[in-house]
Amino acid sequence: xxxxxxxxxxxxTLAQFAAAGWFAFAALLGGLLVAVPTAFADGVxxxxxxxxxxxxxxxxxxxxxxxxxxxxxGRPVRLSSYHQxxxxxxxxxxxxxxxxxxxxxxxxxxxxxxxxxxxxxxxxNIVSIGFNQPFDGPDEMRAFAAQHRIHHxxxxxxxxxxxxxxxxxxxxxxxYVATPAGFDHVLGVTVVDASGRxxxxxxxxxxxxxxxxxxxxxxxxxxxxxxxxxxxxxxxRVRILCTVYDPDTGTYRYDVKLILELxxxxxxxxxxxxxxxxEWLRQRRARRSAALLSPALMAGGAGGAGAPCQPAR
Length: 313
What we know:
By secondary structure, this protein is an alpha+beta fold. It has helices at 14-29, 49-58, 100-119, 138-147, 165-172, 209-222, 230-241, 256-306, and strands at 3-5, 38-41, 44-47, 68-70, 76-78, 88-93, 125-130, 155-160, 176-179, 182-186, 188-192, 198-203, 243-246, 251-254. A hairpin with a 5-residue loop joins strand 11 (188-192) and strand 12. It starts with a strand and ends in a 7-residue tail after the last helix. The relative contact order is 0.15.
């Protein structure tokens, strides 16, 4: 499991260091780090990786909290509105992060592009939640999304209220701790099913489409067919089944071999049905013909038996 730990590096300005330090100091004063697994390295707070991993995995199967948030335009939204009827991918970020969070978001963007080729944009939602409040407000989240050119209709950037951060992150099993340089936090994406339960935790700062694609595929195929547009839903699921991850391109492509096997199997099935149907019709006609001939044969036999015998002359 990779952790985000902002550290000094060439090119980072003094103003950026001051902002990161102020974010961490404000978080400490605000009491946002209650019950977070914390270790110390050379006297500097750091995340206890083993305990953070345990908490994240323990959240699998749990229902996520339905908290009130604000979207990029400042409009009030509920988290539950993003997973109703479809899976949801959740990523926690803080906009004051200058290296790891942007890298993770760009990797998630590439993974999402690959997933859309497999499942389609309308099949799932994504949300990035800013946990450093009040500094990750709608304006900051909108600027973060614009900076990374994320304009997907199914991807939103959300800001919880300051008092909602702790129960929200705890419900997801997401751990973080303030450090002098910013935040040390878990890197990954949480996969939530359509009922609002955590299905999987996918860890890493450089996510691939297949890492998210497999749990997403399982959720999409296990969902019940909708009451309306059943044929379209079946076609969509067949399309999902007929795709395979291509490590060379980092996206999904159609599996031509599997498609040909499915077509061959379908043609064989249709051929067998046609043969059975024709055989049934043949036997039905034969039985009908036999039923029509039987009375005539019986009548002819009875007439022959009753005819008078003419003596030979």
